[in-house]
Automatic annotation (TrEMBL):
One Pfam family of this chain: UPF0223
Protein's organism: Exiguobacterium marinum
Highest taxon, organism lineage: Bacteria
Name of protein: UPF0223 family protein
Stretches assigned to coiled coil: none
Gene3D superfamilies xrefs: BH2638-like
């Protein structure tokens, strides 16, 4: 599947890589599972880059429409779970 990741032109290369990595772990959680701590670390890094809740919602909407995954539900599942792995 070809995905056009939502990006902000003001991000550095490292920030862009971190955002794409977060969306990759969202996909992993929905496709086959991912370690919960790996997911949460990627989300924390993502939140350091995307600090605005409205920007996060906009980016996630674009991503979710392209992939069919719910970024919000994936994050909520990871936060509420006590399992080592998350899989939706």
């Amino acid at each position: 599947m070809q995905i056009n990741y939502p990006i902000n032109p003001d991000w550095t290369t490292d920030e862009l890589i971190d955002v794409v990595e977060f969306y990759n772990v969202v996909a992993q959680a929905n496709e086959g599972g991912v370690e919960r701590e790996v997911f949460l670390d990627a989300y924390r890094t993502f939140k350091q880059i995307v600090t605005s809740k409205s920007e996060e919602k906009q980016l996630n909407t674009v991503h979710d429409e392209q992939t069919g995954y719910s970024t919000y539900r994936t994050v909520q599942a990871a936060m509420k779970s006590s399992n080592k792995r998350i899989k939706l």
